[in-house]
Amino acid sequence: MIDPTFLDTPLYRCEALEPDLGCSVSIKLETANPVRSFKARGTELVASLLVDNGARAAVCASAGNLGQALAWSGRRRGLDVTVVASRFAPATKLHRIRALDARLELVDGDFDLARERAAAVARHDGIRLVEDSLDIETCEGAATIGLELVDAAPSFDTVLIALGGGAMATGVGHVMKALAPDVEVICVQPLGAPAMTRSWHQRRVVTTESTNTIADGVAGRRPIPAVLDDLLVVADDAVLVQEASIINGIRMLLDHAGLVVEPSAALGIAAILENRDRFAGRHVVTIVCGSNVDLDAYHRWIGAAPTGRP
Ligand SMILES: Cc1ncc(COP(=O)(O)O)c(C=O)c1O
């Protein structure tokens, strides 16, 4: 069901990153596609099944990338897509959602407020609410990244996964536990948006009052209980990283890998930077999961004085 343009993405050793990171590093590149993130793997499934079942419209809340992906998948299948997003989301994400013919509604608050509003729109319009990470198709779509990793040779020790709502971590993690149980599954979140990571450590849902991070793609405050249950089964660890490390990761991916990435996609590199001893001598795969950045912000991060080793 997934358009091949989103599948079989590059996976390669990036030796140029290795001297600074002290371990073998492979990149799974999820940005070279029409929506510049992995999210379309899931929305392709969602939209196919909806249209097969006769649906004409759907609504989702989005930090920006899911909305863009659902708009792309919906447009080519004649599905009317409404996206509810924060008006503080990166302008480029909002622009692309509109450009892909979705109806965009902005809320004067964060992603979790957008979730509430999307649910209200679904109730009012009598249309399907697509809930990222809760709807199993969004996790299964992301899980195809895991299938591709397992198929790939040579083997690796650890996969680092950016953790937001949890679709990618539960999807990829499930595949790893089923097909490559020796691979360590480590989720990474910013210290400024730690709700799911804290929940994983405390084995119960922990919410936060606010978020404060440049990694807009993973900045949620209210973990979904069912997703936490799944994450508890498939993740080996969940770690938090500092903003300075995320910025260093963004810069390193540009400098050593020639990749423009959004902050969420640099979380894996940030985790290695903060835990060199833990990863020393290991072969680590990091999923470079999105590249939708506002140029001004990106130049600020790239131009910022090097922050040194955390
Ligand atoms: C670029 C990027 N990375 C990571 C994530 C987090 O993924 P998930 O919500 O599946 O945990 C998102 C979510 O939208 C994203 O857009």
TrEMBL record:
Organism for this UniProt entry: Rugosimonospora acidiphila
Keyword hit for Lyase: yes
Key words of the record: Lyase, Pyridoxal phosphate
Xref: SUPFAM superfamilies: Tryptophan synthase beta subunit-like PLP-dependent enzymes
Cofactor(s) essential for the protein: pyridoxal 5'-phosphate
Presence of keyword Amino-acid biosynthesis: no
Span of domain Tryptophan synthase beta chain-like PALP: 5-290
Protein name: Pyridoxal-phosphate dependent enzyme
